[in-house]
């Protein structure tokens, strides 16, 4: 068996299922969150369409690239316009 070096002794099937489940959730989150983030927070421009295309065509890498370089400034309520003036 290929996984014998990294699996605990005995039946390693539950470990593999758990590992693949966690991996699937992370990959899904790195694909779905950037699409929603881009659709909600980007203004309607051709750039928005290109980002959504990039995220959907190159799922995980495109999502990571968008989260690092493509998010508009002040997305998480950090812009000066979103703060209340007292």
Give a concise summary.
With 86 residues, this protein is an all-alpha fold. The chain has helices at residues 13-41, 46-57, 59-70. It is 62% helix and 0% strand.
Fold and architecture overview:
With 86 residues, this protein is mostly helical. Helix content is 62%, strand content 0%. The chain has a domain at 31-71. The protein has three helices and no strands. Residues 77-86 have low confidence and may be disordered.
Defining key terms:
disordered C terminus, single chain, 86 residues, mainly alpha, 62% helix, elongated
Uncertain regions: pLDDT < 50 for 5+ in a row?
A: 77-86
SS summary, helix count: 3
- Quaternary state, please? single chain
N- to C-terminal separation? 65 Å
The main pleated sheet reads as: none
Radius of gyration: 19 Å
Task: Write down the overall mean pLDDT.
Answer: 78
Q: How many individual β-strands?
A: 0
C-alpha geometry: elongated
What share of residues are in beta strands? under 5%
SSE pattern, N- to C-terminal? HHH
Summing up helix and strand content along with how strands pair, one would put the structural category as mainly alpha
Residue share in helix = 55-70%
């Amino acid at each position: 068996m290929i996984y014998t070096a990294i699996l605990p002794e005995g039946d390693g099937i539950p470990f593999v299922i758990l590992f693949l489940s966690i991996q699937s959730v992370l990959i899904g989150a790195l694909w779905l969150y950037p699409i929603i983030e881009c659709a909600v927070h980007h203004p309607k421009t051709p750039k928005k369409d290109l980002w959504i295309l990039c995220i959907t065509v190159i799922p995980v890498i495109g999502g990571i690239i968008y989260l690092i370089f493509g998010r508009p400034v002040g997305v998480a309520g950090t812009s000066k316009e979103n703060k209340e003036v007292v």
